[in-house]
Amino acid sequence: MFRRLRGIPLLGCLLGSIGCHSQPPVPPPIQKGDYGAIIRYLQTRIPREMARDNVAGLSIALVNGQELIWARGFGLADKDLGVPVTPNTAFRAGGISKLLTATAALQLVEQQHLALDAPIQQTLREFYVRSRFHSDQAEADRAITLRRLLSHQSGLPSEHLRDLRSTYAMGQMPMRVSGVWLSSLPGSQVAYSNLGYALVGAAIERSSGKSFEAQLQSSLLTPLRMNQSSFLGTGAQMSYRAHGYEDGKASTDPQVRDLAAGGLWTSPKDLSRYVRMLFAKGTYKGSQILGSASIDAMFTQQNTGNALDFDCQMGLGWFLAPCGDEPIGPGVRTYQHSGGGDDFVAQLTLLPDQQLAVVIMANDSNAEDMVVSLTTDSLRLMLQAQTGKPVCADDCQAPSHGLKLRHVPAAVDRKRLAGFYATAWGVFRIRDEHARLSGELAGYDFQLLRDEQGWLRAQKKILGFWRKDLGELGRVQLDVLTVQGRQMLTARSHGQRIAIGERIEPPPLSAAWANTVGTYQVLSSHEPDAPLSGISVRQEDGFLVIRGQLHGEPLTDYILLPIDNAHAVLAGNGYGLGDTVSRQVNGLSASGYSFKRTHSPHTPLNL
User: Fold this and answer.
1) How far apart are CA 563 and CA 150, in angstroms?
2) DSSP, res 25
3) Taking the CB of residue 400, how many other CB atoms lie within 10 A of it?
4) pTM above 0.90?
5) DSSP strand pairing (543-550 vs 534-540)
6) What are the helix (H) ranges across 418-561?
7) CA 5 → CA 2, 116, 239, 443, 588, distances in Å?
8) DSSP 125
9) pLDDT value at position 600?
10) In Å, what is the CA distance from 334 to each residue of 13, 189, 338, 460?
11) What percentage of residues in the chain have a pLDDT greater than 70?
């Protein structure tokens, strides 16, 4: 909840700058088996793009079956000391950590210390939830299983923000978050949850009798000879770890509380060993690390039948489809996971049928777009080297970024679509005004037109001319569908449909919630790197709109929907949505924080 206005999938080019980056150099023709040509091309391309985007350091590994084709470091792990990136430099892996956590949990399932479909409360007895979806609260507790935690279907909130940068023991987490309100009905949809994986880490500790780091080292990292990998510490503590940079500036490299969700330090070279183990059905250097049945379970879709997930397929830990990102090629199965934060970016993508994989990690937030495009292009070239045939997402034709035909939606269409839509990136406002349909998200506005296929497309006029390229926003096709009685704003990108928002109607506001309008500051928080310093609540067009603040910087707007006089939720479904906000005697509480009112419309400001 309360995320920054950055890193928005499908909207990155528009929100980041006018237009996208220049095109990379044209790759050479790749003959069958000629991986050397790929390496030479990447050795030229990567330094150019790093210089263009002001990226400090980057490391890459290419895998073909049981062979590490290439591992190479570029740039600097520490700019102040001039330490270069080598193939053994470790980076923060972010969300890729979840793949190792899921693997460790499945090892314990094989040993019958954990069970995929048993309530997690059997292992974490002090943990319980509160639910507005169940009349029987014990039934809600039983619905939180290891399978649902690993596949992000537990219904738990995405984050528990209070003490996010603390170093207290992982085993304390279940007690600290007990009583948390569910954000969605368990098993009904995929909603990415770092909190869920923090509980998986606690379950691994409890069932193994070892600390999380000790268990991961003994069961996974050491057998795979991942010698630069661990879940402990910061970059300043190990000489082979890269220092992180946010927009080119050195970051503070904070501690990570939820180690199981995002605390892994590793290198692409080390992760290549993990990938080769998966390709070998669980064996590495003659040792059986994980059973083949467990690997099959990781790569089996867990969210079949979830209408709200559309074309997004989720395994145990792994995303089994691009989920709106550009695919490698027609009919090419792709499993992937990314990782990121303010100062590191990582991507691990594998092609299970061809046994090809690319792992890229960088120590700068500026590298996000570059890492994605490098991963996609590298895999296409490797696939070409394997088959001898060129590979493209569609038909290898240059993409058309503009509209061939532009139709202003008809009046009845505009009336149907106009409204407020709750998205994971804030309030998406669609308005019918001046015989046009306009959209606004995160402070950026554009016109919505119908394309020749009947989809909505975003366009913007500058100096009287239609811009032909609004980045990803201009390319995706939008429309509103009714699913399970909910009006969902969907996007079709690269032939895949995904949900990006839900239309919300203005609710009746009780006097109690209407009186929450005002500004609030975090109460009794001594966190040096707290993700929130305050919130504000205002009324807009019949809605309560809540906005987070971080040291004076406004975060994203969300719609606040009262459930009863004491509780409201962040409207919509997806990352950070559905989270509960509670009224207190002198303020509000959310995600473990208490907020004290500092100003309301009924009291004068102290100027």
Assistant:
1) 29
2) P
3) 9
4) yes
5) antiparallel
6) 472-475, 511-514
7) 9, 36, 33, 9, 23
8) T
9) 80
10) 24, 21, 13, 34
11) 89
Longest CA pairwise span in the chain (Å): 74
172: CB partners within 8 A, 6+ apart: none
Show the tokens assigned to 176. Answer: 């600290």
State how far the Cα of 344 lies from the Cα of 363, in Å rounded to an integer: 4
**In whole angstroms, what separates CA 402 from the centre of its chain?**
28
Q: What is the pLDDT of residues 53-77, one digit of tens each?
A: 999 999 999 999 999 999 999 999 9
DSSP secondary structure, 568-602, as one string: EEE-SSSTTTT-EEEEETTEEEETTEEEEEEE-TT
Identity of the amino acid at 346: A
Strands 580-584, 587-590: pairing is: antiparallel
Give Cβ neighbours of residue 444 (< 8 Å, ≥ 6 apart): 14, 15
Can you tell me the distance from the alpha carbon of 44 to that of 154, in angstroms, rounded to the nearest whole number?
Answer: 45
Distance CA 414, CA 438 (A): 9
DSSP run (H or E) holding 483 = strand 477-483
Non-local CB neighbours of 2 within 8 Å, separated by 6+ positions: 161, 531, 532, 535, 547, 548, 555, 556, 558, 576
Is the Cβ–Cβ distance between 370 and 49 less than 8 Å? yes
Three-state DSSP at 371 gives: helix
Cβ partners under 8 Å of residue 24, min gap 6: 45, 48, 49, 373, 377
Which of 326, 328, 300 is CA-nearest to residue 313? 300
CB 73 within 8 A of CB 46: no
Residue that has been written with the tokens 């990570």 in this structure: 256
State residue 379 phi and psi, 5-degree precision: -65, -40
pLDDT tens per residue across span 105-129: 999 999 999 999 999 999 999 999 9
Rounded distance, CA 106 to CA 146, Å?
Answer: 10
Residue 325 to residue 328: CA distance in whole angstroms: 9
**Integer Cα distance of 604 and 573 in angstroms:** 37
CA proximity to 152, closest of 576, 581, 554, 561: 576
Instruction: For 496-514, give the DSSP string.
Output: EEEEEEEEEPPPP--HHHH
